[in-house]
Amino acid sequence: MLRPALLLVALLAAFPAAAEIYSWRDKEGRLHYSDVPPPEGEVKTLRNARSTTAPSTPEAAAGETNGSTAGQAPANVPPGTAGTSNAPKTMADRELEFRQRRTAQAEAEAKAEKERADAAQRQRACEQARSQLAALESGQRIARFTNTGERAFLDDSSRMNEINEARTQVEQLCR
């Protein structure tokens, strides 16, 4: 017994919300609002019976005329740009913008992280080239392993070639 009564009350409460709302000016210029249109004169429909929401601003309400539907662009506005400047954004639009901002932020963070990693790697390579140059210029004996696995000490001409190569590496890596 209680359920049918609650259903009836809910239906009766929702019935006026589905009504159309009209706006018009009388002969004295006064503005009137009603759910019943006047018998004569120019009428503006503020909310259609099928519409679920009323216009959010008075400008939007004044812009709708009898027979117009929500979402239609005025004749002087290019397609795809209607309502983008003053209309409130829908939840889907806000969600899309949020996701785009989050994606852009993640890309920026990834790019910054990559740049930091590249800078750290360049710093390590620079330090390694400088230490190699310092070891070559120190004058101590340096040995290299040959292809057969034997140790071969650098002579003066080989040392100078290695020093020149190390200097070019330092110049390239330590800018």
Description:
The chain is mainly alpha-helical and 175 residues long. Among the domains are: 9-63, no CATH class; 115-175, no CATH class. The protein has helices spanning 2-14, 58-63, 91-137, 156-173; strands at 21-25, 31-34, 44-47, 143-145, 151-153. A hairpin with a 5-residue loop joins strand 4 and strand 5 (151-153). Helix 3 (91-137) runs antiparallel to helix 4. The model is unreliable at 54-74 (pLDDT under 50).
Helix content class: 40-55%
Beta-strand percentage? 5-15%
Rg measurement, Å:
39 Å
What is the H-and-E element order?
Answer: HEEEHHEEH
In a nutshell, what does this entry contain?
Keywords: Signal. The protein has 175 residues and is mostly helical.
SSE layout and pairing:
Blueprint: H1 2-14, E1 21-25, E2 31-34, E3 44-47, H2 58-63, H3 91-137, E4 143-145, E5 151-153, H4 156-173
Antiparallel strand pairs: 1-2, 1-3, 4-5
Helix pairs in contact: 3-4
Domain DUF4124: 9-61
Biased composition (Low complexity): 51-65
InterPro entries: DUF4124
Descriptive labels:
mainly alpha; 5 strands; two-stranded antiparallel ribbon; signal; 175 residues; DUF4124
